[in-house]
């Protein structure tokens, strides 16, 4: 890999990407520290760092370690999951408008959680994860079956499915508030208080799926050249597609299991990452790994400071950002494909 | 003439629609084979069977006496390169990136970009004459440049066999001849080239082995000088013509005359 001769573009391109990514991770770390410091009890950045590096048990540090840091970690995990899921779903469908939120995958996961929880079926984090992933898979299959013929049709199908599922959730809640009201959270994504839930299982699932996405990215690069070329390059298209679908549902399902449905992160992240990655799925995935967490942390900060009266769900903040982004994407790509 | 890539008694079909039956072809090694025939006669279908994009309903394609069905997908991709008729590049890809993807069959899940990958890409771009275009987006290239970029992608695969489906369509006449000259040079360097060509005169000029197909069958095959005459053109293309020596290369040249029923 390393050689002393002059090696033109690929190596320098790789160096450029690595430099940008390192800068991105540094920025991410800084934003994480800021995010941890913000709240009813403000903690200065230096104290945050001290709490993380050398805990001494003070009240401020307890807030940081017990509440704020887990929440930042949660935002990072959810952001990475949704960002990379967006990259995978856009690459797979060659559709610039595709996104787990818009396509109803996240809503499907949230809906499955609501029903599962109300029926008393989801008692453990592993069961939550399973139910959410099954919900995501069900929504994916349904939306794909109905809408695969055209990019815009796919999006409309997803939006319609989301609306129907949200409507049913609302109806159930109105019918028996005592049963369903506590699952309200699974119709509008939020990070508030979620850091207290057991996060190990979903975070582990997200971590594994992210590794899987990186391993798969080279095959997706080949797949992007169209079925005939990809197959004659030796890519097993059917297997690549299936693996991608599984990763999308696990990522969207796990993110929804911990934070509820969050729209537009999977749309914003790939579009920004694409400007940097310039046509390479591996780098695109790498950038999504930085940009997704960054966006979620910023949105989470926004959700805490925007209203003086209290927190807004983070999904509302991403919605504010994502709506205009969707309009931009529709105008730029129209109903056409990537 | 030795043969390592051969099709035996193929039945090729899309569902109920049978395109070819009992189709056999020995691809001469180290030679330039051109396949000609009217539209929809099954040229692409045959090529797709050779690169395992289409599974024969009956019969076998073999390489080095092993059925290609038994090859691993990357192993076959290291032996046989294929360029379909209308490949579609992703929006934002640059020429060098496209060419680099030809290295896919040589890479494993975790392998890094190697020195050999780098050399193969550089060499492929030089051979196909797209080195200067390396950092240009594929989308912005002219038809001829884009086609050469795709050829470079297949060359980066470093396969001894190159199969191309109508590589000269959509190119202006100069670029057609340049591309064919490039393919002939690859043949001279030892590769086996198989191309579906539209222009019978170009096929006669460049191919060592000409295969004329009609309605899924091979009507004639051999050196152009041995098989191309007015009778063959009448039978394969239903074209009234005279065949004269090409003033430049002496290979057969088809000059259409008039239809009896205009
Ligand atoms: N994917 C397909 N599904 C069904 N029929 C096909 C398909 N591809 C080609 N055919 C049919 O097979 C026949 C041979 O096609 P093809 O091999 O593409 O011809 P050529 O390349 O000689 O023009 C044509 O009649 C065509 O309509
Ligand atoms: Mg054809």
TrEMBL record, chain A:
The chain crosses the membrane at residues 16-40, 72-89, 101-123, 129-147, 154-176, 196-216, 242-269, 281-299, 311-330. The keyword Transmembrane applies. It is a multi-pass membrane protein. SUPFAM superfamilies: ABC transporter involved in vitamin B12 uptake, BtuC (SSF81345). One of its GO terms (cellular component) is plasma membrane. This is Iron complex transport system permease protein. InterPro entries: ABC_BtuC-like (IPR037294), ABC_transptr_permease_BtuC (IPR000522). GO terms for molecular function: transmembrane transporter activity. Belongs to the binding-protein-dependent transport system permease family. FecCD subfamily. The keyword Transmembrane applies. It comes from the Bacteria. Its main location: membrane. Keywords: Cell membrane, Membrane, Transmembrane, Transmembrane helix, Transport. It is found in: Cell membrane. GO terms for biological process: siderophore-iron import into cell.
Automatic annotation (TrEMBL), chain B:
Keywords: ATP-binding, Cell membrane, Ion transport, Iron, Iron transport, Membrane, Nucleotide-binding, Transport. Gene3D superfamilies: P-loop containing nucleotide triphosphate hydrolases. GO terms for biological process: iron ion transport. Residues 5-240 form the ABC transporter domain. It is a peripheral membrane protein. It is found in: Cell membrane. This is Iron complex transport system ATP-binding protein. It comes from Tamaricihabitans halophyticus.
